[in-house]
Amino acid sequence: TALHLAVQSVRSGECKAALVGGVNLTLHPSRIAQFCQKNMLLKGNQCHPFGVGSGGFIDAEGCVAILIKSLKAAQADGDHIYGVIKGTAVNAGGRSKGYTVPNPGKQAEVIAKAISNSGVDPRTISYVEAHGTGTVIGDPIEVAGLKQAYEIHTDAKQFCALGSLKGNIGHLIAAAGLAGVVKVLLQFKYKKLVPSLHSETPNPNIDF
């Protein structure tokens, strides 16, 4: 959401540059107690995004910040450009069957909107950095939402790689989205996809 609002602000000329950040810190044990009460945390030390596992996520701490400017301004200033943002979108998650059970229709809606806003042919998108918390129910719903969104634009199948940083560094909650953006930018830089760890055996509930 912070990135979306910053992009809108730069595009409208409201500001010339924006620092977009996210922070996740565990400053009191009550936070972990709340996660445990909702059975959200993983019973183990390896998160399995889109793979077979006991389900749940690993809470992690971290902070992320990126600087965004218009492409023209960045080029004029001689900045190192890691990537170009073509389109963004946000929406509310909508009604679902619980806090940890996302709404696939709403996910599909916001993804399709972001694709439309970008003007990019989805068939040319070769990688998606997903939310992918490693939950037994959540991951299949996320893939279903992605499929719904892509099917609006193309009938091509299995052309796009899928990954999640949470198997590598855990779930950064409020910083998770931007951490995923940084992962994508670094994959651009090094021309290499980072493996999603602990996901060798796919979740059987996901129709890849």
- The averaged pLDDT comes out at 92
Provide a count of the helices.
7
Uncertain segments are none
**Secondary-structure class:** alpha+beta
How would you spell out the order of helices and strands?
A: HEHEHHEHEHH
* Amount of beta strand: 5-15%
Number of strands: 4
Largest sheet: number of strands, sense, barrel closure: 2 strands, antiparallel
What global shape is seen?
globular
Distance between the termini: 28 Å
Task: Tell me the radius of gyration.
Answer: 18 Å
Strand order of the largest sheet: 1-2
Helix content: 25-40%
Could you explain the architecture of this structure?
The protein is an alpha+beta fold and 208 residues long. It has helices at residues 2-12, 29-37, 71-76, 104-118, 138-153, 166-169, 176-190, and strands spanning 17-24, 62-69, 127-129, 161-163. The chain has seven helices and four strands, in the order H-E-H-E-H-H-E-H-E-H-H. Helix 4 crosses helix 5.
Quick rundown:
This protein is about 35% helix and about 10% strand. With about 210 residues, the chain is α+β, with helices and mostly antiparallel strands.
Write the topology of this structure:
Elements: H1 2-12, E1 17-24, H2 29-37, E2 62-69, H3 71-76, H4 104-118, E3 127-129, H5 138-153, E4 161-163, H6 166-169, H7 176-190
Parallel strand pairs: 3-4
Antiparallel strand pairs: 1-2
